[in-house]
């Protein structure tokens, strides 16, 4: 009993620094919003918007969860910005490594504009690892 | 060395002993049995999108997902889908109370396995569901409100003891309060939240939706006014914290439960929270005093109205608060509370309605009426 209580209190405390805040029960933490311009950067340097299907893939069919399907539209970051951007970064990595028919993309890149509550916008760039055999 | 220091280890031992006694004391499992019944539909609602995707030939790993750990076992597609269906069947059996312990443990195992398959599966309501299922699986809560109990009676076997050590109930109470406390504390410590910026910004962004609601202009202006949110945010934060604290305080418990129901209904209307509202309201049942049939309703069998009220109580007394006894013909309906206080007539009806899960929310404010308060005081 004591160990479960301690574990729960530890998880609540962990919620203040972890991205995903498991069992920390921080509900509706922010009013932050975000949007991102996602591109595929090909071997020959082209930057192709992710909204265009490629090699039989579509971003909104590959990434269906956590409000990431249509990144160019400004969205509320449901569980906070840190959580949302952590998911976006992981989604870039996942798509980069789970699209075997794509032989031209070197990496995926997201230029993210985020608004933490009513703070001024912040811009940052997220990139997937360079794909093996991409181009 | 002074006397206080000599006494300290003994006091600590006494404290640990009292704590042990509290956790080991046998109490009624009725509230957990009721929660078990209500948790089944929450599990089905939770599994529905996974099953729907599976019916469309898609499971979690066909789209973006992120395992928590590389070593976490992943099942072949068909086995995974089968497991989800097993979880749904187990949830139904859990609610019905058929092979209750096995069904509850299976439901817990399936929901937990599925939650930890991917970080994308994680939501606060699902975490709460896992905690509730874990404690239901740990508690012998299938000995009443269950097909198991009914089958046992039919076979002429003696009923099992309906009481059990209290620790699962206390642990679930702690978790329930922790949910409100953690949520309130995170908002209290965030200047943007406590200052009203977060709610104000959210309402401003939802202004287009708000304008489709049948709200008068003054209400719309109020809701989009920043100074309103400066106060409203503090009220929200304090409400969450007061629920967390009030649930532990016997005199404040009914108020805390009442406010919590309002709070969850407001959240359900204004946000998409999956099964959180249903689950959180159901869990509030565990704050009922864990003893049963310790209040008496005396009913005049010759009075149609009293007989009807008796039938209502029999049907809705899911927490087994009342023992129904016949009264002398011509006497008015009487309720005798645990402390021996007797209420008669309308106050007795109001009081008994305030102790039935389905009517409590409507009847509890009536207990504040001066007439009823005077009657109880007398």
Can you tag this structure with a few keywords?
heterodimer; A: 135 residues; 5-stranded antiparallel sheet; elongated; B: 378 residues; Glutaredoxin; 3 domains; 4-stranded mixed sheet; two-stranded antiparallel ribbon; 6 strands; 6% strand
Describe the structure.
The complex is a heterodimer of chains A (135) and B (378). By secondary structure, chain A is an alpha+beta fold. Chain A has two domains: 1-27; 31-127, no CATH class. Helices cover 25% and strands 24% of the residues of chain A. Chain A has helices spanning 2-14, 59-62, 81-97; strands at residues 33-42, 47-49, 75-76, 105-115, 122-127. In chain A, strands 1, 2, 3, 4 and 5 form a five-stranded antiparallel sheet that branches. In chain A, strand 4 (105-115) and strand 5 form a beta hairpin. With 378 residues, chain B is mostly helical. Chain B folds into three domains: 26-155, no CATH class; 176-286, no CATH class; 295-377, Glutaredoxin (3-Layer(aba) Sandwich). Helices cover 62% and strands 6% of the residues of chain B. Chain B has 18 helices and six strands. Chain B has a four-stranded mixed sheet. Chain B has a two-stranded antiparallel sheet with strand order 1-2. In chain B, strand 3 (295-299), helix 15 and strand 4 form a beta-alpha-beta unit. In chain B, helix 4 packs antiparallel against helix 5 and helix 13 packs antiparallel against helix 14. Chain B starts with a helix and ends with a helix. Chain A binds chain B through residues 1, 4-5, 8-9, 12, 15-16, 20, 22-31, 33, 61-66, 68, 76, 87, 90-91, 94-95, 117-118, and chain B through 23, 63-66, 119-120, 122, 124, 127-128, 131, 167, 170-171, 174-175, 178-179, 182-183, 185-187, 190, 192-193, 197-202, 205, 271.
